[in-house]
Amino acid sequence: MMRTGFQRVARLIHHKALPRTPHLLPRLHQASAFGSSTDSLVARFCPEKTDLKDYALPNASWSPDMLSLYQEFLEKTKSGRWIKLPSFKSNREHIQGFKLPSGLVAASDKQDWRIFTRCIQLEGQGYEYVIFFNPSEKKSVCLFQPGPYLEGPPGFAHGGSLAAMMDETFSKTAYLAGEGLFTLSLNVRFKNLIPVGSLAVLDIQVEKIEDQKLYMSCIAQSRDKQTVYAKSSGVFLQLQLEEESSEQQ
Amino acid sequence: MMRTGFQRVARLIHHKALPRTPHLLPRLHQASAFGSSTDSLVARFCPEKTDLKDYALPNASWSPDMLSLYQEFLEKTKSGRWIKLPSFKSNREHIQGFKLPSGLVAASDKQDWRIFTRCIQLEGQGYEYVIFFNPSEKKSVCLFQPGPYLEGPPGFAHGGSLAAMMDETFSKTAYLAGEGLFTLSLNVRFKNLIPVGSLAVLDIQVEKIEDQKLYMSCIAQSRDKQTVYAKSSGVFLQLQLEEESSEQQ
After folding, report:
1. Would you say residue B201 lies in a domain?
2. pTM for the whole structure
3. pLDDT given at position B101
4. How far A81 CA lies from chain B's nearest CA (Å)?
């Protein structure tokens, strides 16, 4: 079950057997594979009307710093240059009507699925974050406030919680900027610890899209940019989701 | 508050101003700084008698694969070559009587602190894992079973959840093998997705200890080693914890 789809594609890419040979990807037609416009991807990802709970909205746990920067970016969305991304409980809700490429289907059951960065639903205890995306400049900003359930060294956020936040922000950016679907690599250089409860601002930029891969960079720092928490890079594999109805494919 | 201790040391190291100049680390005396034996570190970390709850024990959510491999490693602990590490709710409990180096003190309050990889206490829903450590060979094995709250792509573990699990296993290994205290870098190359509920086995090895840094590698794969999920490397900074009583320092 696992040895098709992403695995085969990713393996080929990893082993550099497929630098520029799209014929080895039988399910993808290079000319049309990544033809979805950012507009249509955003429309799919950010439904205007939905009953789904959006977890990327202010709550009582947000610090004044987090809240005021959120308001600043919300103001910027009015011009249309920036978009506030909704954040549902599971990626299943973000891609309703679509599914992973053929072969990438895990056993399904009636579990209570949650996207990792929304695994803790107690306000302020775990991940508090909101992502803003700028389609024309292919960049994102994530406002991240780690709670006490994300602890590593006493009083500070776990390095892994920041790495996961970076991966998640890369993931959403990669998808909207060019159908980036799976992380191929994530490299993080940690500079300073983030005190629990304080605000880290993650600036993500798509650096290039080449050979079916999106290359991104991230810097996480304090709002005043005086303290760099970490820098990272991420590479994502472009793959198209399939429509749910195309079961026979 | 944040611009001392780890930050200064890490910054100097990052900027390569301090390749081999221990005099720039006034609080550390190179000759004695990392003199704690692995035995004494293990004794500190794994109290023989404690009332603290150990989360690294089998529960009803563990798969037969996870359970049988756990039993195999538990058997190996009898020879003394392998040690099963306990896993408490917070790192605060692992380092009782000690604190982070001077200057690295975050605002403290009466919050419900949890180490990130124990943030979800519902059995089977989040992180299920146990780490075994081999002191003489400076290596570890982590048995990791991601639950449905760790989802990324529908049905599969979030890449960030695996990155965090790697960081956490590196962290415990680095501390016990040589007082590695803070992640300086974490590089992950993802190969295949981990289906939620299945077992990933992480093999960690300390590759070298040099210039106050521990270099480690990790491979995460299925139990039968037929599927590699990811490979990673991690670099940790060696720093000594301070005794709680030495407030005046």
Report:
1. yes
2. 0.88
3. 83
4. 28
pLDDT in tens, B122-142: 999 999 999 999 999 999 999
The residues, any chain, with a CB within 8 Å of residue A235's CB and separated by 6 or more, are A183, A184, A185, A213, A214, A215, A216
Q: How many domains does chain A have?
A: 1
Say if A167 is an interface residue toward chain B (CB within 8 Å): yes
**Residue B67 touches partner A, C-beta closer than 8 Å:** no
Interface membership of B192 toward A (CB under 8 Å): yes
Pick B119's closest partner by Cβ from A119, A184, A186.
A119
B150/B170 Cα distance (integer angstroms): 20
For residue A226, being part of any structural domain is answered with: yes
CATH number at residue A80: 3.10.129.10
Known active-site residue B203: no
DSSP letter at A86? Answer: P
The chain B residue lying nearest A164, using CA atoms, is: B160
> Which residues make Cβ contacts (< 8 Å) with residue A32, sequence separation at least 6?
none
Query: ipTM of the predicted structure?
Result: 0.88
- Closest CA of chain B from A235, distance in Å: 9
Looking at the domain assignment, is residue B17 inside a domain? no
- Triad A96, A97, A99: Cα angle to 5°: 90
Show the domain range for B43: 38-96+113-240
| Closest listed residue to residue A181, CA positions, set A64, A68, A27, A78 | A27
Q: Tell whether B105 is covered by a domain.
A: no
